[in-house]
Amino acid sequence: MYNQPDYTKGFTLLELMVTIAIVGILVGIAIPNFTSIIIINRLTTSANELVTALNLARSEAIKRGIQVTVRNKGPSTQWESGWDVFVDINGNETLNDNGNATLCEATEDCLLRTYAALPNGYTLRTGSSSYDDYAAYLPSGLSNVSVGDTFRLCHGSETTTSRAVTINSLGRARVSTGTTSCP
Questions:
Q1: What value, to the nearest 5°, has the Cα angle with vertex 179 and ends 81 and 159?
Q2: Helix (H) or strand (E) holding 105
């Protein structure tokens, strides 16, 4: 006896094309929203990393009883190239290493942590103050400058999703959403 194929199991070409069209429309709607979520998460992560570095420097200065500095690795006022946190033995806000294999000798600075550059398209800029190149904390936990500043963390020129890291005159940092301007 001959078995006839059962054509009722499966999809027609029309059904397949309609399904693909619906999936394409949903993906077209979801991808722009997903991109903005990624940008917002990167901004939040980068802002939190800066606050973490400042808090680390402050707590290490208190613990060690010596100045600890957070130093910008890029051009003045442009922190997007990353930053270093180090024990600043001589208080000159510059990482001094004599180049030998022994780390953290009594006569040289001790690198505590290095933070990588921000992703392409992201900027981290200071305002107009003494935080252009570094932020330093004294053994008391206070900033070595008596003025505050606001760092602006942006993706492009969009100010609504940007982050502001504000350092008060005592050296405490906090994060808020939105800045008045972006580079």
A1: 85
A2: none
- Walking along the chain (183 residues) 10 residues at a time, the average pLDDT comes out as 66 89 88 84 94 96 95 92 93 82 77 93 86 94 90 86 91 87 78
- Could you give the 3-state DSSP secondary structure of residue 52? helix
Top-tier CATH class for 14-177: alpha beta
Domain range annotation of the chain = 14-177
3-state secondary structure of 155: strand
By C-alpha distance, which of 66, 71, 74, 96 is closest to 84? 71
Per-residue b/e over 66-101, b at no fewer than 16 CB within 10 Å?
bbbbbbbbeeebbbbebbbbbbbbeeebebeeeeee
User: Mapping DSSP to helix (H, G, I), strand (E, B) and coil, where does residue 31 land?
Assistant: helix
Look-up of token digits 């194929």: 5
Q: pTM for this one?
A: 0.81
